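Predict structure. Chain length: 103.
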Amino acid sequence: MNTNKIVIYVTIIAITLIIAVPTFYKVININQQRLNEVNEKLVTENAFRCYYEGKCQNKIVTLNELYNLGYITQDIVNPKTKEIYSKDSYVEISLNEMKLTYK
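Prediction complete.
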């Protein structure tokens, strides 16, 4: 009787883990993707603002320019690797869209 209870408990724990672990990883990946989208939006919007305010003269705006001009005050970090993006990363501004390239 005691062994049956142990088997039932182990089975319940195993089923819970089988359901919880993939869900946990999915939530983490979605969160990292959203953080990356937030970073992209922050950089592209500030590059656009810098260009149209006339402080950034070229249509290619680097992170370094945005840092130096005060448009971005904190380091932009890759949410998956936790590495800081290079200051040589840039946003290319065109009439139809803005393209962000990380280096």
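Summary: The radius of gyration is 23 Å.
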